Amino acid sequence: MSPAAATNLGYTPPDGGWGWAVVFASFISIGFSYAFPKSLTIYFKEIQEYFSVSYSQIAWVSSVMLASMYAGGPVSSILVNRYGSRPVVMVGGVMVSAAMVLASFGTTIVHLYLCIGVIGGLGLAFNLQPALTIIGTYFQVKRPLANGLAMAGSPVLLFTLAPLNQFLFDSFGWRGSFLILGSIVLNCCVAGSLMRPVNKHAPKTAPSKCNGAATEEAAAAEASAPSDNLLTEENQKESKGQSCVQRFIDPTLFRHRGFLIYLIGNVVMFFGFFAPVVFLAPYAKHLGIDEYSAAFLLSIFALVDMFVRPATGLIGNTKWIRPRIQYFFSFAVSYNGVCHLLCPLASGYWGLVAYAVFFGVAFGMVCALLFEVLMDLVGAHRFSSAVGLVTIIECAPVLLGPPMSGALVDIFGEYKYLYYACGVLMLVPGIFFFIMNYYNYKKLDEEQRQREAVDMRTCEEAVQLKMSQDDKTAHETDG
Fold it and tell me: Rounded to an integer, what distance in angstroms lies between the CA atom of residue 81 and that of residue 74?
């Protein structure tokens, strides 16, 4: 196993113990955050007919919910940095529950946008970001595996919720189902209660060289230490004020090369990331497949996804992959694009089953690596701020992606153009990631060699100075 990436946290993460209970809590919290908007697509066709709205209009329900979840990232990040993960997740669970209860009394589609989309989405933001952040405080060596297990919560809950939602709809209608879902989602409060803060009273570990970004930051911190001691009292106060701001949101990340590569690629990718899942069940119904079989496609997709995510975490933690894990992520994004481009070639129900399997593999790989590669780039100590900035910027493509795809269905009356568009929107950033990550790794290697050369020269100069002082002392003694 490769050495752990340097975290620069000031303590040794336990890499186990109560950390596994935290992983389980994150499994539940992340699961509801990602699976809930997708599972609600089971009700789309019926709600669409009830309110007499178009494909693109009904797609806004999940789209607004996901966008609010991403837009709430910075707010969630600030609250986590101030109060910790536990209370934030518990408040988020209550908000999503209240949103579903209020939505059950909806009289217009706009009512659903506000309740499910805005209130529910913001509640999911309070579930997602704290769960992602706390794993980085408990794990270092086993972090990719822990992230993979936690991210598996999404397909496991989707696998459960997809047929459950169909059963609830048949038994209670969409209004009654929303009331029941409001009670089910309160399990997020239980998950939040398990997120005990990590014990930081442990000796600090020495930074490792496996992670380029973290090593770069550690070296910069060491180099700046002598100058910090020379600061005047006024400069120290100014520095403290800046550190308080950066504790919540770190704007210096926009000068971080790896972070910018990740952000640019993800903005394009998210235009086509969620739409294929949102429209999978409606696509099957459009082809004349019965409702339960259409819902079962989501279960197949989720079943494959739930096994792929932990497996991806295991592979990503190996000594061959982890030092260059960004390439693994690039492949996963490109593979998603290829799957969507080939989807229209699938004919009949079994063709869609085959697509659901391959798509489940591709989607699971991206989701398992999505936040691990960000943590690999910026370091665990800057991850909370980084994920807050990423989610607020990504909320635009998350919001616009499914409705834009739904508009293609409204215009052409066919789903194949939707999947072609999503395939291109995934394949292009995948190729971009391959090229730019090669450039980033090359630059990091060059910078590492330069630092080593500087360190070697410094050591040689120190040795020569010591030798000259010894010679001078010897001459004075002889004299």
Answer: 10
